[in-house]
Design goal:
- By secondary structure, this protein is α+β, with helices and mostly antiparallel strands.
- The chain has one domain.
- Helices cover 35% and strands 25% of the residues.
- Strands 1, 2, 3, 4, 5, 6, 7 and 8 form an eight-stranded antiparallel beta sheet that branches.
- A hairpin with a 4-residue loop joins strand 7 and strand 8.
- The chain is globular.
- The N and C termini lie close together (8 Å).
- About 4% of the residues have low confidence.
Length: 159
Amino acid sequence: MKSKNVEHSVIKNRVLRKLVMQINKGGVTYSPLLDKDYSGTQYLAISPFPERSQIFTGRATGKMVMGYCEKNKDLLEKGFSLGSWFNPDNGKTYFDVATTISVEKQTEAITLGKHANQIAGFNLSEFQDIQLGGTGEFNDSLVTPFEERLEEALTLMGN
């Protein structure tokens, strides 16, 4: 995989403005390492790290995006993506570190999501939730240990 500095990819104003706009219009799954937007692709987005999730009141801002990416730089530099969306029903913006997994590996992706107590994954080609039955909360008794989820996610991404 190409080595690229995550900071430089995310901080570019053209990329940042586009990300904020996409988040506020519905959502985005974006890999800073690859400079790739996964919307409309044959991938599933799973958020295997509930301990890294953040929720903000209000619409997304550039400062939110940059701050979240900086805090999660260690995972974004491994090829994980920023998964973020604005929920107009409650006025909150959600940020996750997402793994993008080929739709051909849906069974394995669902297992990973369940190991992380995830409420739902997302089919990026059909723009549909995949219900996983979790609560979304980070609770040591409900999730597989971090290193195991990390290894499982990297394997499914092909890294």
